């Protein structure tokens, strides 16, 4: 079975995903693209030699009966409308994070999907597919060093574009930790507090950078995440789980050791594109394989998108109030439990 994809948003990650579906993965083909910037849509067709229709907007693309699945890689604020339209048209959807920019928007998607009656949506929370995080989860579940007590994380970008605002440290950047950390320890968040440390001279006036986010989970675990998006030196993702008998640390990306001019150097990555390249490949391959095998995607769900949005909303409130903000979720619908857990 070949899944015929229509892509909405052919910017940075849209092009990355088009490239991997076309040239690396198996079971998928790009048959249509659209972008509010029509030049960007036309360019990808030429760049990757696609046999694909260029549509003027997502509505027109979603009417195409030859499309089985939609890949949404537009800006976060545009995701909800495209995902709802795809569900309405009965098409599978792989949506980049965030699923929607508000918890209410994610809930509208959850409700539409439940009404449809089977899972159609997978959210691009690719860290769950990263071998480092998978190894951490296995070590925690295997009780290798006892019960987790604390987690210390850092999410550092070398720099960001000028449209990046203080709340995007949460909704665009921290959102990856929000998703992967509760999955890692199989726990729920209870409250969050956001601290603004001394500001770097490299951040534009409108941006508070770095930020420190502290969570407590329902079982009493404390989690600290530093988000620093003008760190200058590279793209750096850290995660250390402190347990009762020892610690577990996310592996560094392996790289050549360079010995030169009396120094031992390890080159660092500079942006996100290469850091999780295997995880992006795996998430999309899994999306296609599970649809082909079972008729439904099995990766991160619309409900996971909703959890992330509720948590992100609390974090943004905590940025504004400077106080602890509670995080409360409604019960997970049976629809989103795997059959083995019902
Ligand atoms: P980008 O700005 O490079 O590309 C977005 C593209 O979408 C642009 O070409 C824009 O013209 C187009 N677009 C925006 N609204 C649209 C609409 N309503 N209809 C059609 N096209 C539209 O942005 P980038 O970096 O590719 O990010 C896109 C999405 O991917 C975001 O949701 C972002 O959070 C996510 N992302 C995820 C990453 C990950 O690690 N999973 C990494 C980078 C981005
Ligand atoms: P980008 O700006 O490079 O690309 C976005 C593209 O979407 C642009 O070409 C823009 O013209 C187009 N677009 C915007 N609104 C649109 C609409 N309504 N209809 C059609 N096209 C529209 O951004 P990006 O860095 O590729 O990010 C895109 C999405 O991917 C974001 O949601 C971002 O959070 C996510 N992202 C995820 C990761 C990850 O690690 N998972 C990494 C980067 C970006
Ligand atoms: C971007 O959208 C991503 O998703 C990257 O993984 C993240 O590191 C970056 O801060 C975001 O802007």
Automatic annotation (TrEMBL):
The gene is iolG. Keywords: NAD, Oxidoreductase. Involved in the oxidation of myo-inositol (MI) and D-chiro-inositol (DCI) to 2-keto-myo-inositol (2KMI or 2-inosose) and 1-keto-D-chiro-inositol (1KDCI), respectively. HAMAP family: IolG. Pathway: Polyol metabolism; myo-inositol degradation into acetyl-CoA; acetyl-CoA from myo-inositol: step 1/7. Pfam families: GFO_IDH_MocA, GFO_IDH_MocA_C. Signal peptide: none annotated. The keyword Protease does not apply. Residues 3-125 form the Gfo/Idh/MocA-like oxidoreductase N-terminal domain. InterPro entries: Gfo-Idh-MocA_inositol_DH, Gfo/Idh/MocA-like_OxRdtase_C, Gfo/Idh/MocA-like_OxRdtase_N, MI/DCI_dehydrogenase, NAD(P)-bd_dom_sf. This is Inositol 2-dehydrogenase/D-chiro-inositol 3-dehydrogenase. It catalyses: myo-inositol + NAD(+) = scyllo-inosose + NADH + H(+); 1D-chiro-inositol + NAD(+) = scyllo-inosine + NADH + H(+). Homotetramer. Belongs to the Gfo/Idh/MocA family. Residues 137-323 form the Gfo/Idh/MocA-like oxidoreductase C-terminal domain. Its EC number is 1.1.1.18, 1.1.1.369.
